[in-house]
Design goal:
Number of strands: 14
Structural class: alpha+beta
Radius of gyration: 17 Å
Length: 261
């Protein structure tokens, strides 16, 4: 039986998340204070509170690291050693008391994600990965699915806040996914979509518009679980571009299908 053996700083990150999860759950059944950052882009008082908590307490985990966090980011590209934080991924779900929502934290170092955790306290799930040490859910090692054909694949996707402005492209992509797979799911949390690929519940995940904090931790989780993450055309993935994550076995076929859009 595999035993989860992570670094000291990974353990300290998980301890910080224990406390932020408690804050998350204290607010779960309380009235929400909600405002709009955009027409469909929401932020709650919980987003702001958890982000502030994480920025304060992570400074002791990796001294000198910078932050790129959803509610305060001035840039969409991490530099140096940087914590990439989404305090509440799936804010619309949170605002509507739907439990597929999570906190995502990743550590960017030497040009790549080296540590990532996604905590879904309503679901009672904690995903964590460290480069070279595997991916884990509540202490159990994860591995991607063994589905080998898109015809048998269950695929996740998401829609951008600009969905009405980009409706034609969204519908082209949806038609491809619906026509080429056994089914498509949209949970409303990209961080969890990536986790579900890592644990084998989904065989692939594609999204055309996504921010770094939504998928940074999940990127490492998928790779450490034996999967693959690239751009839409199979190119090396870079932040702020379309993302395709899969079990690896269906990846080439997914790339070919998406090229039709």
């Amino acid at each position: 039986m595999d035993t989860m053996q992570l670094s000291e700083r990974a353990g300290r990150l998980l301890s910080v998340l224990d406390e932020s999860d408690a804050l998350f759950m204290r607010n779960w059944d309380r009235p929400r204070t909600i405002r709009h950052k955009g027409t469909r882009d929401l932020v709650t008082d919980t987003d702001v509170a958890i982000e502030a908590f994480l920025k304060e307490h992570l400074r002791d985990v990796v001294p000198g690291a910078s932050y790129m966090a959803e509610e305060s980011a001035l840039s969409l590209s991490p530099e140096g050693t940087c914590w990439i934080i989404d305090p509440v991924d799936g804010t619309t779900n949170f605002a509507h008391h739907f439990g597929d929502t999570a906190t995502s934290v990743a550590l960017w170092e030497n040009g790549r994600v080296v540590l990532g955790a996604v905590s879904a306290p309503v679901r009672g799930e904690r995903y964590v990965a460290e480069r070279g040490k595997g991916a884990w859910l509540n202490g159990k090692r994860l591995h991607v699915s063994d589905t080998a054909s898109c015809a048998d694949a269950l695929v996740a996707t998401g829609f951008p806040y600009s969905v009405h402005e980009d409706m034609d492209q969204v519908l082209r992509d949806m038609r491809i996914l619906l026509d080429s797979t056994v089914g498509v799911r949209r949970c409303g949390s990209a961080a969890l979509d990536m986790c579900f690929v890592a644990c084998g519940s989904f065989d692939a995940y594609f999204e055309g518009w996504i921010k770094p904090w939504d998928i940074a931790a999940g990127w490492l989780l998928v790779e450490e679980a034996g999967g693959m993450v690239t751009g839409r055309e199979g190119n090396p993935y870079v932040f702020n571009s379309p993302i395709l994550a899969s079990n690896g076995l269906v990846h080439g076929e997914m790339v070919g299908n998406l090229s039709l859009g």
